[in-house]
Specification:
The protein has about 220 residues and is of the alpha+beta class. The chain has a single domain, classed as Nucleoside Triphosphate Pyrophosphohydrolase. Helix content is about 20%, strand content about 40%. The strands form three sheets. Strands 1, 2, 3, 4, 5, 6, 7 and 8 form an eight-stranded mixed β-sheet that branches. Strands 9-12-13 form a three-stranded antiparallel β-sheet. The chain has a two-stranded antiparallel ribbon with strand order 10-11. Strand 1 and strand 2 form a beta hairpin. About 20% of the residues are buried.
Length: about 220
């Protein structure tokens, strides 16, 4: 590398660093919807339909970012909310965003907070193919209720068993002459899982992490 290469490198460095190799992940965006009822803001949640991925779990509206359709994570969040809740785009007022959340299973979540201009949720014609039900929980409930905290163990396994029962080295440690310790499962870092128990069901995982972050900002 010469001096001109160095100058070219300097020009290519990001002015606002983000997430390196973000496209290696499944990138998603969600809307954190707020609904005013009787002078108090509520989070709006969906319970996913039983037959879809992660069926029966509680989440915010959202989905995978589609670069062919969406020019930003805001576009994704709004598009998915319109499709899932049956609300018109002009009824969604975006007030800001949280930082990108990186999940432990190879997913990123960009979340935007928006106010839904509706009087009640009965006016929403939500997509029953994707959503079993929608419900509200006051933001104050989460402000007054600490989540339960659990821990799972995250490990890296350099092998897998195929459908025939054969062991496959997905990382050929010996061939690459890597240290032998990488031929076995390694890592084992603890990952915290947050759980909120509500009358409507358990809210946990990434959704709970987003709620927790909103509450922490309200406490600052």
């Amino acid at each position: 590398m010469n001096v001109s290469d160095l100058e070219r490198l300097k020009e290519k460095l990001p002015k606002h660093p983000g997430i390196l190799r973000k496209n290696d992940y499944m990138n998603s965006a969600v809307l954190i919807p707020l609904v005013m009822i009787n002078g108090e803001y509520n989070f709006l949640f969906e319970k996913r339909a039983a037959h879809i991925r992660q069926g029966g779990e509680v989440c915010f509206p959202g989905g995978e970012i589609d670069p062919a359709i969406d020019s930003s994570c805001n576009d994704t969040a709004i598009r998915e909310t319109v499709e899932e809740l049956g609300i018109s785009k002009d009824k969604i007022l975006i007030i800001g965003s949280l930082d990108t959340l990186i999940g432990p299973m190879g997913v990123t979540v960009d979340s935007v907070i928006g106010i839904l201009d509706i009087k009640n949720i009965s006016s929403l014609n939500f997509d029953k193919n994707e959503v079993e039900k929608i419900f509200l929980v006051p933001v104050s409930f989460f402000a007054e209720s600490e989540p339960e905290k659990y821990y799972v163990r995250l490990e890296i396994n350099p092998t897998e068993i195929n459908k025939n029962g054969d062991r496959i080295d997905t990382l050929p440690v010996k061939e690459l002459q890597l240290p032998d310790r990488y031929s076995k499962t390694w890592g084992g870092r603890k990952h915290q899982v947050l759980v909120y128990k509500t009358t409507e069901g358990i809210i946990w995982g990434l959704t709970a992490a987003l709620i927790y972050e909103v509450i922490q900002k309200l406490r600052q």
